[in-house]
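TL;DR need structure tokens for one chain.
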Amino acid sequence: MRIALSLLLIALPLSAAKRPTAAQLQAQVKRLTEERDDLKQRLAATEGLQQEAAGAKKARDLARAEAAAAKKEADQLRASLKENQGGSDAILNELQEAKVDAQEAKAEADRLRSQNESLLRRVNAVPGEGDLVQLSDEIQPARPINLNRATPQIKSSGLFSSRPKGVVVVQVLISEKGDVLSARLLQGLPGDSAGAKGAGEACVEAAKHLVFDPATSKDGKTHFKVWQGIGFYLD
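>> reply
TL;DR here they are.
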């Protein structure tokens, strides 16, 4: 009887352990759910890390490729610059020479402009007493006074040679007082013979002894210096 009671007492707790209560089941379900959710979160985090790692590896490979391409381009550029160094120096020298030429051309243009302005002022200015002027409709030319007395002394080149004949024109610079300041041959006799050359020299010398009424303005009040041609007729 005691043995049966003991077996009964032992069997009761075992029977009770095999049948958990509803609360225990709910707690166990909750715990399992939380573990499942935690595993899901860890899995998602692991997948995110894997994607980030893959992206980082791709970016690293792209950066390496770009760096290699940049290095290759830099090497090519360096080699090209080295090859063209001589040509670049020549171009720089040409540019420097062109700059110097441009500066010289500008200086010459400025000089010519200044000279032209000076000439324009002289042309437009009203000539005064003793000014050197060009013959024009506004100027009365100088008139020779002793033309018949200024005879060219032509030397004979030989016993049987003939006297040179023709027209010789001499240009003379006549002062505002009518004196000849300078004379030069403007047109000599044709040919290169000694007679033709001597005739020209004789006419230039004769022109130096001429006396003129000076060139004047139309009203005769202002006397000018002029270059004027004088013809000698040799016969």
